[in-house]
Amino acid sequence: MRLTLLGTGNARQVPVYNCDCVACRRARGESRYRRGPCSALLECDGQRWLIDAGLTDLTERFAPRSIDGILLTHYHADHAQGLLHLRWGVGLRLPVHGPADPEGLADLYKHPGILDFSQPFVAFERRELGRLAVTAVPLAHSKLTFGYLLEGAGRRIAYLTDTLGLPLETEAFLARQPLDELVLDCSFPPRAEPSNHNDLSCALEIVEALKPGQTLLTHIGHELDAWLMDNPDALRTDVRLAFDGCTL
Questions:
Q1: How far is CA 103 from CA 84, 85, 86, 120, 187, in A?
Q2: What is the dihedral of CA 224, 244, 120, 85, to 10 degrees?
Q3: Which residue range forms the structural domain that includes residue 123?
Q4: Is residue 246 part of a domain?
Q5: What is the tens place of the pLDDT at every residue in 60-75?
Q6: Is 54 domain-assigned?
Q7: Is the distance from CB of 186 to CB of 199 less than 8 angstroms?
Q8: Residue 247 in domain
Q9: What is the per-residue pLDDT across 11-61, written as a single tens digit (0 to 9) for each?
Q10: Residue 14: beta bridge partners?
């Protein structure tokens, strides 16, 4: 099983338009520090699944029939906007597994095109996709949002973006699963009152509760990048900052 993080930024991405902070200046100067919309490509036993569809160039990145479907965490634009163009393809059907959201994004549900929204997940539902098992776990966000426990080839990866802490039932469920890797929302440096997304303190509390083998922080904002430039020793040895294109 291989998980490639295609994008590791929050909704603003990095660099932020018209921002002159040290992190944004660095990202403009060195492409390796740029962060696109948070998304990933999961490959297991010949199958290829996108996790989220915030990238706007999906039709150029992925040839027809080169992916088996999409695991959508939720319908905020930075996670679903790539579907708006992808749907107008012809001659195939592409399943989109995610939370049931009748409003969806814009008119996706009304005009789905090649996208098949007919099998939404319910909380803690486990599905077998070939030799890959996917379980939807509820997250704490401003819109109905799922993370995913991914099991295949003897590995367990939890992919948890767009959350502020974890619901108690989700934390308890994942604590019972020995995780090899955790990919976790960490949008901000430590804050007095984080909102809608983990700051670093919240993220490290989740790491301590779940005790994965290793953790990659994603959904990263420019404030966190800038803060870590001044605090390079703030992360535990088993916690790393993700970057676009990194692979588990």
A1: 14, 18, 18, 13, 26
A2: 110
A3: 2-241
A4: no
A5: 999 999 999 999 999 9
A6: yes
A7: yes
A8: no
A9: 999 999 999 999 999 999 999 999 999 999 999 999 999 999 999 999 999
A10: 35
Helix axes 200-210, 168-175, angle to 10 degrees: 40
In this predicted structure, the answer to whether residue 102 has a pLDDT above a threshold of 90 is no
Strands (DSSP E) found in the chain = 2-7, 39-44, 47-51, 69-71, 94-97, 115-116, 126-129, 132-138, 146-152, 155-160, 181-185, 214-218, 239-241
What is the helix (H) or strand (E) element at residue 206, kind and residue range? helix 200-210
β 126-129/181-185 pair status: unpaired
Structural domain count, the chain: 1
* The overall pTM is greater than 0.70: yes
The reply to whether 248 falls in a domain is no
Any idea what the CATH number is for the domain that residue 93 is in? 3.60.15.10
Instruction: Write the pLDDT tens digit of every residue in 110-137.
Output: 999 999 999 999 999 999 999 999 999 9
Please say if the pLDDT value at position 103 is more than 90. Answer: no
* Parallel, antiparallel or unpaired: strands 47-51 and 39-44: antiparallel
For residue 144, what are its two tokens? 């109905």
